[in-house]
Design brief:
The chain is of the alpha/beta class and 200 residues long. It has helices spanning 7-10, 33-36, 44-61, 115-122, 134-147, 175-189, 196-199; strands at 23-28, 65-70, 100-104, 126-132, 151-160, 192-194. Helix 5 (134-147) packs parallel to helix 6.
Length: 200
């Protein structure tokens, strides 16, 4: 067992899994770009399957589900080009009729969008985040949620990322290590990290 402690633990904060019916669920960038586009992610298939289970459980519990889509440069042919196939949502994380869709251009899903207002309209202050990429948009959004007064949860198995180059010149950093490190950073102060088995 680790001797390290999070800031939550040092502060005596008791963390428990969320009650799904009392939360809103925000699905971040569950788009085909990460499946068969410019940015295929390690472990994307099981992560999408877990995301599908989470969304189904949220709907069954009456929890609002908000979908976020990253919008790239139109006509660029690059990642998330809205004219290309990578912009589309990936099954099984497809929005149902009536579920909100928020488009963003920055990693933080609150930046330049109405996500905060949409969450406020649900009356929920507890938010479950899942999606892609763990170290990028999931992390940036969850960190911002703390500043906005939300209590956050991140679903570890319903998120994924990709390998990254080592900025200090070493070998590439494995996607699994990036994923676990990003979750550890969020769990230190920003969110309670859970799995779909904990809540769905």
């Amino acid at each position: 067992m680790s001797g390290a402690k999070t800031l939550f633990q040092l502060a005596g904060v008791t963390q428990t899994p969320p009650v799904l019916a009392e939360c809103a669920v925000v699905v971040i960038d569950a788009q085909r770009e990460y499946v068969d586009g410019h940015l295929p992610l390690t472990g994307i298939a099981p992560a999408l399957a877990a995301l599908g289970r989470l969304i189904a459980a949220a709907r069954a519990a009456g929890a609002p589900v908000i979908h976020v889509a990253h919008r790239g440069a139109e006509g660029s042919g690059g990642p998330f080009d809205p004219n290309g196939p990578g912009f589309a949502f990936a099954a099984p994380a497809l929005p149902a009729p009536g579920e909100a869709v928020v488009e963003k251009r920055l990693p933080n899903s609150f930046a330049g969008t109405d996500l905060k207002d949409r969450l406020a309209a649900t009356g929920r202050t507890h938010v479950i985040f899942a999606g892609f990429m763990t170290h990028m948009c999931v992390s940036a959004t969850t960190r911002a949620a703390l500043d906005l007064g939300f209590t956050s949860y991140v679903v570890a198995d319903a998120a994924a990322t990709r390998p990254l180059p080592d900025p200090l010149g070493g070998p590439d950093l494995a996607a699994q290590d990036i994923h676990r490190t990003a979750l550890a950073e969020l769990a230190d102060r920003f969110a309670t990290v859970v799995t779909t088995a904990d809540i769905a």
